[in-house]
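P.,

For your records, the input lines for the assembly:
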Amino acid sequence: MSSLRDARKPKGPDAPPAKDLRGARYWRSLEEWADTPEFRRFVEREFPENASQWADPVGRRRFLKLMGASLAMAGVGACTVQPPERIIPYVKQPEEIVPGKPLYYATAMPQWGIGQGLLVESHMGRPTKIEGNPDHPASLGASNHFSQASILGLYDPDRSDVIRRAGRIDTWDNFLAELASALEVEAGRGGRGLRLLTGTITSPSLAAQIEELLTLYPGSKHHQWEPLNRDNVLEGAKLVFGRPVETRYRFDRAKVIVSLDSDFLAWGPASVRHARDFAGARRSEDGEMSRLYVVEPTPSLTGGVADHRLALESHRVEAVARRLAANLGIEGGAASVESAEQWIAGAVADLQRHRGDSLVVAGDGQPPIVHALAHAINHRLGNVGSTVEYTRPLGARPVNQTESLGSLVDDMRSGGVDLLVILDGNPVYDAPVDFDFAAALQSVKLRIHLSQSEDETSQGCHWHIPGAHFLESWGDVRAFDGTVSIIQPLIRPLYGGRSSHELLGALLGRPGLTAEQAVRDHWAAQMGPDSEKQWRKSVHDGVVAGTAFPPLTPQLDEAALRAEAGSTTSPSGMEVLFRGDPCVADGRYANNGWLQELPKPLTKLTWDNAALISPAMARELSLENGDVVRLSHGERGVEAPIWVLPGQAARSVTVHLGSGHRRAGRVAEGVGFDAYPLRESDKLWNAAGIQIEKTGQRRFLACTQNHHLIETGLASQQAHDRHLVRETEIEEYRSNPEVIHEMGHEFPEEMTLYPPHEYPGHAWGMVIDLGACTGCNACVVACQSENNIPVVGKQMVEMGREMHWIRIDRYFEGDLDDPRYVHQPMICQHCENAPCEVVCPVAATSHSAEGLNEMTYNRCVGTRYCSNNCPYKVRRFNFLLYQDWDTPSLKLMRNPDVTVRSRGVMEKCTFCVQRINAARIVARNEDRKIEDGEIVTACEAACPSQAITFGDINDSASRVARLKADKLNYGILNELNTRPRTTYLARLKNSNPELADG
Amino acid sequence: MASRPELEKPPVIEPGHTYATVTDKISSIVLGRHTPISWFIGFAISFTLFMVMMYAITYTLVVGTGVWGINIPVGWGFAIINFVWWIGIGHAGTLISAILLLLRQDWRTSINRFAEAMTLFAVACAGIFPLLHTGRPWLAYWLLPYPNTMGMWPQFRSPLVWDVFAVSTYGTVSLLFWYVGLIPDLATLRDRSKRKAAQIIYGIGAMGWRGSAIHWHRYETAYLLLAGLATPLVVSVHTVVSFDFAVSLIPGWHTTIFPPYFVAGAIYSGFAMVMTLAIPIRKIYGLEDFITMRHLRNMAKIILATGLIVAYGYTMETFMAWYSGSLFESFMLENRMTGPYWMMYWALIVCNVITPQFLWFRRVRNSVVTLFVISLIVNVGMWLERYVIVVTSLHRDFLPSSWGMYAGTFWDWAIYVGTLGMFLSLLFLFVRVLPMISIFEMRTLIPGEKKDGGH
Amino acid sequence: MSGQLPLYGLLAEFENPEELLSAVRRAREAGFRKMDAFTPLPVHGLAEEMGFRGRKLPIIVLLGGLAGMIGGYGLQYWVSVIEYPLNIGGRPMHSWPAFVPITFETTILLAALATVLGLLALNGLPMPYHPVFNVRRFKLATRNRFFLCLEAVDPRFDREATREFLLGLNARGVYEVES
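Structure tokens returned:
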């Protein structure tokens, strides 16, 4: 295990010899070492300077070496050891680990407290790849870019590896001592001064522990805060149902869907499931195709696939909702909404035609009343029970989190808080600005913060306790439908992190309590007799059977709507929208290089967030991409570079939260701007009446597509003329199935001198369904993780050197002020007549017997001729030494089945050849042919909407062969006679004939 | 052309010269103790630039090709532009010595030696780039066909391998041609020099040449044969270089007209460079007797003629883009003319198409200064042409999603300017230590004394 | 003849090619065969006068060219079809059009090499020493003087008579060439 040896190898002169690094001595030596000025200096370092260091391997190596040093000690002896507790492989496997043979374990990723079921691939005890868990309702085998990237989060060299008190390294025992004395005081007065701040808690075992704490200290309080909370959802439900209920949507059953600013395909605990269900209902073959109406202030992935999208300022969405309700005969209606009437009429007509199988869904960013109206409409249309189901709230202790945090801040200000324990979360960074959390925090006597890396909040607390990653510790979590998953760790904490269970254990006076005990004891009680058997099954499957919430039938009270009526006032001026960043969410993933470099689906920006404005506003204020503006609201303001985004509502400015960290790790710091200083507790999602003024400065934004071409529609126009993306109305397709083929030119076979090559045996091919693809990026990160693709940094992206093997091409259709978005995943097309191979002087890229276009890395001299001659430009070149050869933790992370490429060689999509070969070996051992579906490429596995299908096109029974026979199937640039093995299914639109425009 | 008086009248060598004077005049430049101060200044400057190149190359090798401006989609940049540019310049020499020899254009005699040397040095400069531009230059030798441990061979369908053969063949043959031409003059220097060291060195070079009639006979046969071989070769070299582009499928590269128009362009730039260098040198060393106005005028005419062929090439490209009806082709051309690099394109048209038109006027052809300026402009224009071909074709090809921009970095420029330094340094050394004009061939031009034929 | 150094031949110096040419003609008429002429520039007809027919070199060059052509194409065929056949972009193993450029280049290369090597070989170069170099005036052979050397091995050669004979051809000087 070379990686283990490397991990132990001391890096740099500063590091003490590894053999000394044992137990207590290791702590001491690390303390000594970590106090060296050099260590301090590089910890203080900011990323932008490093941008140049990415370009210069020498400099880059230096700080990685330093990082490696601390790591060699942190992870010593534990790097690749599985936890001592019994964990259970997902599939039948030999008793002991077979080297080179991965094991799969079921677990779950908590995000905003809600679970996403996962299978984790583990090589020799090292988790290396995330897959979705087919048995998990929120996954069904798929995953998203957040869960895919969580593997890098686990090995992130910037995670904190020591307990600190006031910034100085300290020990767990000292912590326990200080905590005990503080608790003694609290015990004396019923815990009046004790406060616990967490995110949303769905974990039954954790909830139980918290209950226990609250009963032990009756005076103490539990507060919850998520910057992207779902208060509106619960408040909206309260409004009409009188109590908080969770709404569960069945997009697979809905034939007409109206989204009121809801990005249900990309956001929220069920987005992966929604994408699957929605895509299923869009496929033409199964009878009627569903139709989607979206009204939204800023383009979203959901809006991108809408049949009828209406761009409207956020505060006007309520008016639209009221209008819809009124036209459906619900009281509390409103005046007409100019420029939306036609859309509304169409939607209403469709909804009425589809009573029982239609669906109206409101977005988290919309005020409670909009949710209430949505509930009313769904009731009126009789959708409840078919496309809409109600359950009890997911949170174990549902509260209005904004109020919850507010009351905590008040208590802190009034000096009523003596002991505050923060489990995860980063309130100093992401609390509403008017709370001024950081200041209030200072008046707490003892502040304890548990988090995976030292962030802004850690700095404001006395104690920083390194947190455990979900792949490192036991736990449990509920999915969107209430189903519980047991979280089982795949590796012992790399950096000695502690779980929330352990810390709560300490609070409860049971410092020895391990997370495993806490979780097991809880479930032993729940499962009763034969709990052992159930436990094993639950851990094995990744779901606890029968824990899904049963549907409720709450009574709807339309009167409440009347009470709310007339409260619709449409403020003038411009509004700013606060949205989670598509890549770093609310900031929790800011130090994840994969996510930072992931092109945001619509803007294609990397390493930066920007203030998104409409082309109209850009014209009006004569702004260009990169112009820095000052967004101010009252006396508060932030400076942000602007980016013109077609489809943005004319008077709305969108800012993405989660960037501009002051302290979060080398990757995150200084990237983008921080939008939180503009976000107030009563305007969490949008604030009207903001000012924009030009500062005159400019900031270069690293965009991976069509630099300087967004404003002019040139690129999209050309794409359209070249028939790259083909789409048509379902009606037109039904009347003339050949319509897609008629769009492009085919290459006349007789025009070529050479006979086509024969491919007996397997012939691998892929089909990508443009109708299903939402552009969500899950495949991009899955590919990056599976194929050891490096991160290159902003500077390199600016130069056009990003390394992603999958490029999701984004084009606009139609008018730039209100366009439709099309996403086209572009990977190596594995052309049978590959132009790249013919020009390679050293035969470094050639064709396999099964038709794969293969790169031989160690034969490549790097002339880049192949890339020049690739009409799809899907090849990527290691212009510099991009791959990190030094950081031990990253070595642990890599997929051992895939070569780690060095400087100066070309690389590209391989159709996951390592997976093909793995399947071939199994098949050969069992003396059979490889079956269809046995080989699943990383992108195919991750795709939430099942847009990607891979298989043997020689096997006429295979899914891929059947799809290629489909009339919707077409190849890109066929006229060049490249004979691509990757083809696309044209996208079908299902516009309402009553609405003339698209 | 023969009817034009200016061709007939002025001889290719001013009257009053004898075997002796020709020999002494030219050999004294090399053997004479006195070196003009201008030589030292020029050499110092060019050698400094040469060192800049060495530094930039070292940096590139240490850090990686990433220090250049290249990216995806523009995988080729300065390196290939400069390669093609230098190779083009390297065409004049062999062309003058070979083709004009076969055409019995005896005015070539006084410039061929020097043009051949220029060819060699230009090819040397060109050769640097293909090696250096690879991602792993230390493995560039994998392009050579040799039985290696991996059992792997080059991929002979790739134009880059054709390049390897074409350029190395061209370099070798040019060297042979040049050296064979030097042998008798080396003998002269051996016999004329007073210093022992010089006698030995030139003696080795002369290989014991003693001007035997039999040797002369074989010598001339060989020289003609070499010329006969070099002529198709010189045409083939730039044809093969143009295949790098023509064989690909990128709009703006995939063009059947490339071979002829690259060759014409090569001759065009080659002669421009000869002129750029000949004009100052004949001034400094007072060689107006040997490199006469007639030489300059003839070269000007060749520049004009090839310039017109190149212009025709541009026109046909445009016409084809429209006539083919191919969306990709027409967009490519539109993008060249009006896209982000429109200035490059129009600058190249001005340099390569407009400027040479002045050569229609005799007054221009007779003015050394204007000829010098025009030759400089043509050199710039040809570099721009390669820039436009390489960059504008790549930066926006088939899929708009992959479009990008390209700009050379400091290191790109350092290496480019550096090769100019290397080229001039070699040239300065050449004029100092070797006869820059073929002495024995000049002897054959002595009027009256001249024997039937010459050759 | 005893007591004198062995003689390679006698070297006659002339002003210009015409004199040399006529001298050669006369020497041939006089029956001399073993002779050689040295000139600073190629003088046409001179070699022929001395009865030289140069036919070898062109044949050598032709053979070189053929070797290059066969070798070049053969290498490509052998590598791409026999030794290491690869499916390159779906092209046939023997995609002959792509093999033409290299075949052409190798043809030229070997022909050129054959030319130069042939030239040197036939001329017996490099030849660091030759008796005629012993004559001081011979230096002018690479400047502006023309020399005729009648060699001692010739049966008609006689030191005195031949000297007279040469002076009769109005040579500017006649020098003894020691071997």
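Two observations worth noting. Chain B touches chain A through 50 residues (CB under 8 Å). The CA atoms of residues 280 and 286 of chain B lie 10 Å apart.

Regards
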